[in-house]
Amino acid sequence: MSSVKVAVRVRPFNSREKERKGKCIIQMNGATTVISNPKQPRDNPKSFNFDYSYWSHTSPKDENFASQKQVYNDLGVEMLQHAFDGYNVCIFAYGQTGAGKSYTMMGKHDSLEQGGIIPQMCQEMFTRISESTENNNLNDTEGNVTFSVEVSYMEIYCEQVRDLLNPKNNKNLRVREHPLLGPYVEDLSKLAVQSFSDINNLMDEGNKARTVAATNMNATSSRSHGVFNIVFTQKRQDFITNLETEKVSKISLVDLAGSERAESTGAKGKRLKEGANINKSLTTLGKVISALADQKAKSKKKRGEYIPYRDSVLTWLLKENLGGNSKTAMIAAISPADINYDESLSTLRYADRAKQIRCNAVVNEDPNARLIRELKEEVERLRQVLRAEGLASLINQQTLMNRNRSLNTSDKEKNALERIKESEKIIAELNETWEEKLRKTEYIRQQREHALMELGVSLREDGGTLGVFSPKRTPHVVNLNEDPLMSECLLYYIKDGLTRVGLSSAKVPQDIVLSGQHIKDEHCILQCKRISQSETIVSILPFEDAQTFVNGREVHEPTELRSGSRIILGKNHVFRFMNPDQARMERGQPDYISVESPSEPVDWSFAQRELLQKQGIDMKQEMERKLHEMELQYKREKEEADSLLEKQRLDVEELKRNMSNLVDMLQGVKLENESKQEEIREMKSKMEEMEKALSENADYGKSLLIWAWNKWSQYQFTSLRDDLWGNAIFLKEANAISVELKKQVLFQFVLLTDTLFSPLAPDLIPQDAVGKPRPYNKTIVAVQVCDYKNGATHYWSLNKLRQRLELMRKMYDQKSSSMSDLDYESAIYALLSQQDPFYDRTPWFSIVGRGFVYLSNLLLPVPLVHKMAVVSETGEVKGYLRVAVQPIIDHSTMSGSKGFIFNTLLYAHFVDEDFETSSLIDEDVDEGQQSIQTHLQIGSEFQFRITILDAIGISTTYADIFCQFNFLNRHEESFSTEPLKNTGKGAPLGFYHVQNVCVKVTQRFIDYISTQPLVFEVFGHFSNHPLHDDSKDMETLLKTRRLSPMNLAPLSKPVPALTMDSCGGVVASVPSRTQCAYDLMIWFEICELETRGEYTPVTVDHRGDISNNTGVFLLHQGIQRRIAVTIVHEHGPELVWRDVKEVVVGRIRNKLKPEESTNSTDNILSLSLLPGHYVYPPIDDRTFYRFESSWDSSLHNSPLLNRVTASGDKVFVTLTLYLELDNCATPVIISKDLCLVVCNRDAKLGTPRSLRNFFSGSYRSADSNRVTGVYELSLKYNEHQGVGSPGMRRRRRCVIDTSSTYVRGEENLAGWRPRGDSLIFEHQLQLNRFHKVLQVEKTRHILLLRETM
After folding, report:
1. CB-count exposure of residue 28 (10 Å: 0-12, 13-18, 19+)
2. What is the pLDDT of residue 567?
3. Residue 101 annotated as binding?
4. Helices in 180-336 by DSSP H: which ranges?
5. Taking a C-beta distance cutoff of 8 angstroms, is the pair 1030, 966 a contact?
6. How many angstroms from the chain centroid is the CA of residue 845?
7. Residue 180: which residues within 8 A CB-CB, separation 6 or more?
C-alpha cells in the first residue's frame, strides 16, 4: 500500500493579475504551503503539508525558484523508475484555469529547458532504453531484454472521448469496462514508437489537434482533459531456463482542464457549456477522492458504500489510478494572486484530501499470457451458455452478423454476443506482434499524410511539411511572379460562399490579405456557388475604384471565372485561377474550345503582355525603347570594364616598382650584414684590448671576462631568425618536390646545439668551431629529414640542403619533361647511380640516449653504484643504466667474478686540457682530502674499474641493445659491450661488462675526476621503426607531423580596455634594456554571495592538467559574484603597486582557443573595482597585493553564462587586468583564461573525493579553490625610437620572410608551413631541460657519496 504523492506549485503573476495589481497570498517553507485570506487579514493563515511545495513565483535567479527540471527530478524520475520496475504509473495535474497545469505537464515544445514532465519522462525513457540495450550487448549473462513502447493520446471533451492521433477516427469513442482489464476506450489508436523523436512528433500532432480557446483568465485555455498513455513492455529471455518473462507498465499522464467560474472567465454560449462539463467531471473527481479518502480513513469499509466512478468519463478511465493498481502522483497548480483566493484555497483542500488516498500497486508480470488464457476460458464459457440455451448456431460469425440485424433478438442474446465480440477483439489486440503494431502505426501515419495531401500539403519522409500543390477538388488561385522560381509558391483556397480579398486594415476581416498602394481595404469578393457535386461556378465581384483585371480586361461588374483565367489586382498582384472540377469537365468534352485559353504557357510575362495588348499599348515601340536602354547599359558597362582594365595596368606597374624597392631593400640588408660583421670584429678587438688590460688582475677578472664573452656570443636570436626565414623557401621547395615524386620524405627546420646530451655530427660543426674544445655551445639551424620509407631520421646542414636541392630539381625537371618513360628511367638511373638526393645511408643502430657518471668517489676512494638516467637528444628519459665505479687499491681484486665479462687492461693518458676547477666534493670532507695523498701520487699509476651492470626500462621497440662509454677528452676511443636481445620480459638487461683502466696520475687527471664525468651511450636497433607506422600519404603526414615539446597553456591575448583613455602605448613596440625582472605568482578566485551575507570562493575542480595551473570554477546560476586577485612576489624597491586601472572580462566562448575573427566588443564588460590593499600574512616575507571587483555575468547578454552549462561542456572567458606601478609610464597588463561551469542554483558542489587528494593533503584545502598563474614582469628603460645599442637597432630591423613566397607544387603541401620563431623558444626550453638533468645527476652523485661516507 502506498499513498498518492501530492505536490503544489505556484506560478508567477500573469498579465491579468498585474493589471489588477494583485498581491501574493501564498508562502512556502519547505514542504509546507501557507495561504492568507486577503479579506480577513487578522485571521491566522491556513497551512497545508504536502510531499513537495514548489515556489515558481519569482525569476530563476531566486535560489528558492523551482524550475521544470526540479519538478521532474522529484516526481518524474521516481515514477519512471516505478515504470521500469513493472508498476502502473499515473501523474495528473489539477487546478483552476490558467494556473499552469499544461505548462507543468507539457511545457514549451520548442524549448528543451522548459519542457514539461511528459517530454522529459519520454526522453529519459528512451535514453535508459538505449543504455540498457548497450549493456545487454556488452554483458548478456543475465539474459537479453527487449523493450517496446506504444502510445495513445485522447481528449475528453464535453464527456466525449476523441482520438488525437488518428485523423480518420474523428467519431466519438466508446468507453467500455472489462472485468480483467478494467475501463478502456474502444478503437483507440495505439501507435508503436521506437525513438524519442517519434513520440515527440506524435505528442506535437496531438497537442495541435486538442481543443483550446481564449477566456478572460487564459488566452490558451484547455477546453478538454488530455490523457497521454504509454504502454511500456519489457521482455527478458532467460538463457539458463530458456523462459521468456514479460513486464508491462501503463503510464498515464493526465493534463486536466481547469476549473472555472462563469463570471471570472466571461464564458458564454459554447464556452459556457464547455465549462459546465469541465466542472462536472472535476466535481465527480472530487467526490471520488473524498470517498476514497473516507474509505481509507475507516478501519473497515461499510457494506453498500458507493464510489461514483461512472458519474464521469474522466473518473471512469482513472479508476485504476485512484486507489487501484497504480503508483499515482498529483500536481496541484495554484495562482498566487489575492483575486483568486477562493479557487486557490479550494485547490489546496482538494490536494489535501487526495493525499489520504492509498493505492495497492503490484508488479505487472506476464499479463498477456494470463489474460489470453482467462479470456479464452471466458469465451469458451460463453459458448457453453449459448449451447445450453439452444443457440449454438449463433457461434458462427456470419450467423452472428445476421442475428445482429434481426430486430427480434432478445436482450440476453445481445449481451452474450456483445461480450463474445468484446473478448475476441481484446484477444486479437493482445496477440498482435510488434511488427504488426509497427505496420499499424505506419498505416495511420499514411492516412494522416493522405488527409494533408487532400488539402494540398506535401510532407517529407520524416513527416515535416515540404510544400503545397494544387488540390484535386477545391477552387483556388496561385500567384505568378516575374521570377519563375517564385511563381506558384502561394496558394489561396476559395471556400464555398464569399471569399473576401483586401488589406489587413479593413473593418471586415479579409480571407485573402494582400498589400500594396493600389490595393483597397476591401478590393473584391470571390463568390463560389456549388451547382452540383461535380460543378462549381466562381465569380469575381470588384468593389468601386478597385483595379481588377481578368484576362487583360478591366472589370467593374461581377464576372464569371474560367479555369486558367489570369487575374491582376492593383498593379503588382498577378494570379491564375484554377477550378479542378471545371477543368475536368471541359477535358471530357472533345469539341469544347475556350476562347480565353491561350496556346502558350501562362506565366507572369504572358499576363503582362496580355494586359498591355488589351489596354492598347504598342509592343513594338516598347521593345524598341527596351532595346535602346540595353544599348545604353552596354556602353556604360564597356566604359566601366575599360576603366577597370586601366586600373589593373596601373596596379601591375605599381607592383613592378615595389619589386624594385624590394631589391633595394635586399641590398640594404646585405650592407647591414656587412656592418654587423664589422661590428663583431670591432667588438673582438675591444675584447682583446680588455683582456690585455685585465691580464694583470686576478683570475676572477679573467674568468668574469671569459664568461661575459661566452654569454654575449651565445645570443643568436637575430641570426637564427635570419637563417630560418631566409631559407624557408628552400625547405618548402624540397617538400613540394618530395610530394610530387612520391618519395615519402618530409623536411623541417630544427635547432641543434653541441651539448653533452646532443653532440653535433662532424658534418654539422660550424667552420669557426673546428679545433675548439667540445662541447661547442653555439646553436645552428639544421634540417630534420624524416625518411618514412626507410624508417630513419637524418640531420642536414643548410649547405647540404642547397646542394641536394639542386639534384632534386634536376630529377623533377627530367620527370616533368616530355621524354619517354624509357629515357626517363635511364636518366633517373644515371642520377641515382651517384646518390639519391632524398635519402642518406641508414645506420643499423640508433642512439637511444646518453648518461653521465662522475668519478669524484675515486678521490676518497670509495666504490659507488650509480643509477643514471638515459636521456635522449630531445630531453626524454628513455630508461636507466646501473654502473659501478670502483678504485683498485688491492690488486687481488683484479680477478674476475663469475658471470662478468672482463676486457684487457686499458692504459689512458691525459694531456694538458682545461677543465672546470670547481670540485664536486664539499670542502668539509677532510678524510677524503687526506686519502688523496696516499693513492693518487703525481707520477704514480692508478687503476680503477668500471662495471656496466644492467639497463632498466629500455623500450621494447629497440631489439638489440649495447652500451659504450668514453672520456670527454678522448672521443675517438670508446669501449662497448656486446649487443643483447631486448625482449622486455623477465629481469633487466644484464651487461655485466667490466673494464679496468690504468692511468698515470697527473694534475690534469685529478682535475678531470674532480669535475668531469664519463659519457655512456646506449644504442639500439629498431624492431619496428615508429616512422613506419606513420608511412601513409604525404598529405596526412604534412598535417600531423607537428608535435609540441611541452604541454604549455596558451598565452591569452589581452581584452581591450573600455574606460582607459588610450591603450596605444600599453605595449612598447621598441625593445629596451631591462632594468630588473620579477616573477609574479597570481591567485585568481571567484567568490559568490552566501546566505549569511559573505563572499566565499567557489569550488574549483582541479582534475584537469595540473601542470598548466588550470582548474574549472563551479558556479551557481543567478548569484552575485566577485573576482578576487592576489599578486605574490619577492620584495623589491622598484615594484610598488599604485592602483588598479581597470579589470575587463570578455571573449566568452565554449572553446579554449578563441576564434580569430571575434574582435567585437559586444560582450566585453568593465568591472566595478574595490580598493586594492597590501596583505601581510605571518611567517612570510613575500609581498602580497590583493584587490576585488564586482562581476554581474548577466550584463554580458551571453547564453553561455545565463544558462546552466550542459553536461560535458565548459565555458571559457578571458580576464585582463590593467595595473599601475610607481615610476612606470605604461600600465601592467595581465591576462588569464578562466574555465567555468554554470550549475543549478541549488546544486550542492564540493571538491571530488579521491585517495590521491586524501594522501596528498589537498583535501578540503582553501588553496584548492583558486587558480594560479605564473608571470614574468620585466621593467625596462624608456628609450626613444632609434636610440639604443647597435644590437638593439639590429634586432629592430625587418626580417625577410621567404616562407610566403610561392614555389612550384606548393598547393600539394596541404597547408604545411616551415617552423619559425616558436622553434627558437622551444629549443631554449630543451637546453634548459638538459641543464637541469645534468644538475640532477651531479646532485645525485654528491648525495650518494655522502651516504657512502
Report:
1. buried
2. 93
3. yes
4. 196-209, 262-265, 270-297, 313-317
5. no
6. 46
7. 371, 374, 375
Q: Is the pLDDT of residue 226 over 50?
A: yes
CA-based nearest residue to 174, from 405, 378, 427, 418: 418
Check whether 850 has a pLDDT greater than 80: yes
pLDDT higher for 1322 or 1062?
1322
State if pTM tops 0.70: no
Place of cell 472530487: 286
Peptide bond into 590 cis (omega under 30): no
Asked if the model's pLDDT at residue 1175 lies above 80, the reply is yes
In whole angstroms, give the CA distance from residue 78 to residue 153: 23
Element holding 27 (H helix, E strand): strand 26-29
For residue 524, is pLDDT > 90?
Answer: yes
DSSP run (H or E) holding 1255:
helix 1251-1256
Weakest-pLDDT range from 585-599, 633-647, 1110-1124, 1133-1147: 585-599
Higher pLDDT, 652 or 325: 652
The answer for residues whose C-beta is within 8 angstroms of residue 239's C-beta and 6 or more apart is 140, 141, 143, 144
**Chain centroid to CA 1000:** 71
* pLDDT band at residue 931 under the 50/70/90 scheme: very low
Compute CA distances 1277 → 40, 1063, 1221, whole Å.
Answer: 80, 19, 14
- Are 503 and 510 a contacting pair, CB within 8 Å? yes
Amino acid sitting at position 114: Q
Could you write out the DSSP letters of every residue in 290-332? HHHHHHHHSSSPPTT----GGGSHHHHHTTTTTTSSSEEEEEE
User: What residue has cell string 635519402?
Assistant: 839
- Which set of grid coordinates corresponds to residue 1324? 631554449
95 is in an annotated binding site: yes
Closest CA to 102 of 223, 270, 275, 281: 223
Strand partners, 34: 27, 47
d(C-alpha 1120, C-alpha 1104), whole Å: 27
8 Å CB contact between 1190 and 1122: yes
- Cell numbers given for 990: 644484464
Residues 6+ apart with CB under 8 A from 1247: 1099, 1101, 1253, 1259, 1260, 1264
Three-state secondary-structure class, residue 569:
strand
Q: What is the DSSP string of 657-696?
A: HHHHHHHHHHHHHHHHHHHHHHHHHHHHHHHHHHHHHHTT
Residue 12: partners with Cβ closer than 8 Å, 6 or more residues away: 56, 57, 58, 336
For helices 619-694 and 699-713, what crossing angle results, to 10°?
160
Give CA separation, 828 vs 8, 169, 557, in Å.
88, 82, 93
Residue 785 is inside which H or E element, if any? strand 779-787
Q: Report yes or no: 830 and 807 within 8 Å, Cβ to Cβ.
A: no
Cell of 307: 464510489
Q: Which strands, in side-by-side order, build the sheet including 46-49?
A: 26-29, 32-35, 46-49
- CA distance linking residue 669 with residue 1297, whole number of Å: 13
The torsion region of residue 992 among left (phi > 0), alpha (psi -120 to 50) and beta comes to: left
661 Cβ neighbours under 8 A, 6+ residues apart: none
Q: Percent of the chain at pLDDT above 70? A: 75
Q: Please check if 102 is assigned to a binding site.
A: yes
99 is in an annotated binding site: yes
- Assign 1042 to helix, strand or coil: coil
CB 188 within 8 A of CB 173: yes
pLDDT of residue 334: 92
**Concatenated DSSP letters for 116-148?**
-HHHHHHHHHHHHHHHHHHHHHH--TT-EEEEE
Q: Considering only CA atoms, which of 60, 54, 66, 69 is closest in space to residue 113?
A: 69
3-state secondary structure of 450: helix
Cell numbers for 1084, please give them.
585568481
